[in-house]
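Continuing the series of single-chain predictions for the mutant panel. This is the parent chain; the variants come on the following pages.
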Amino acid sequence: MNSQTAVPPPMDGRDPSNLRGDKITGDRYYSPEFAQKEWDHLWTKIWHIAGRTADIPEPGDFLVHNFMQESVIAVRQDDGSVRAFYNSCGHRGMRMVSESSSVDTFHCPYHGWKWGKDGTLVDAQDADVDFKRGNPCGKLKLGELRCDIWGGFVWYTMDDDGQSLEEYLEPMVALYRGYPMDTAVRVAWYRIELNANWKFVTDNFSESYHTRTAHPQVPPWIDQDVDSARHEMWPKGHGRTVQPMRPSLSDRPAGGGNAMFEAELRKWDIDPGKYETYEEFALQGWKDLKAAKQKLWAEKGYRHYEKMNDEEITDSPHTVIFPNVTISFLPDNLVFFRSEPHASDPEKCYFDLWCMAFPVEGQTEVESIMAGPKPLREVMECEHREFDGGRGIPELAGQIVYQDMELAENMQAGMHSRGYKDAYLSDQETRIRFFHEVLNDWLNDSQP
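Parent structure:
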């Protein structure tokens, strides 16, 4: 992929004049008919993430991604490439594998047909004596999907004729070329069933207007003041909120001081006591932190900073990739969020949380941001949970993502109210309506 392509200027994500004004009605969150339109016109056309390249390092290693009624296998080939196939035996459609693993051949458990890593049938019972059309081995192939790699993720699409992955992601490939995403270590991995429509997750991550109310732990380390952030969006539906990772001047810690930012400054050999006012501590300290990180990153073992710019090493570009993936690009972490619809109930979804950290020399434990302190080692098994009002994931209680899931379930209930007709949005929530307008374009086959 060409990461050197120039990044097109974004639209202002706080300017409602960029919107048509499409209503965000409640039925799109619970209507089976609307969910069917999403399957027909969105999910079978977009690019999906099957998993991470780190999960399939060797030939024969494969990922299984189940999406609604569909299942896809992405398998590492002998030449190092990755190919994707429908998880459906070419004999009578049997689903062949249920979880990611490693194989020489895919062995159908029903009649024993064996398929090679390249999707070609290599063995079938009675192949030479019982097929009047001739031996099917070497002729039949599994249904193949287009597959590509970006950001350390394996992507696939069910659309044989749609955009390339780079076209679909524009301008994400160029925008995040400085992050060595494929070197990040996944230290926490959850898949959580929520009683909410999948769109609530994208809605939630398309604005920071809610953070002052819902996430009181944020202001000490991210400046969430209304005029501190940039809100950006691009025609294909992707967008981001870029916030400085410095103390908020509006929401100051009770009693004064700020232990979190003070510790960050000391880590980079900056004396937090040298600043005379809180404003100087927050604003000049943040600028001094940029300079110190650029000067000392190699010495302190932060090798992932090598190609990152001043903003990237001190700020938080919280990024939504249309329609259902969000990545927080933090200086030392990547936090991956994804919502996927339930196969039959539009009032349920699956919420994926992958906490990833960039390795730092000498570091054995990391703060995963959304899941708390974790050992710096690759987690290879997913924790499958039901949210159950928070009871299903007690270890995440008090974390930002836990608070977001609580909001989602209550919002879902509110969509049924006769009193709700449309959202009345602040300017900084412009990207929410933009997301729904781009979604409407896909459902009408007029996507950008």
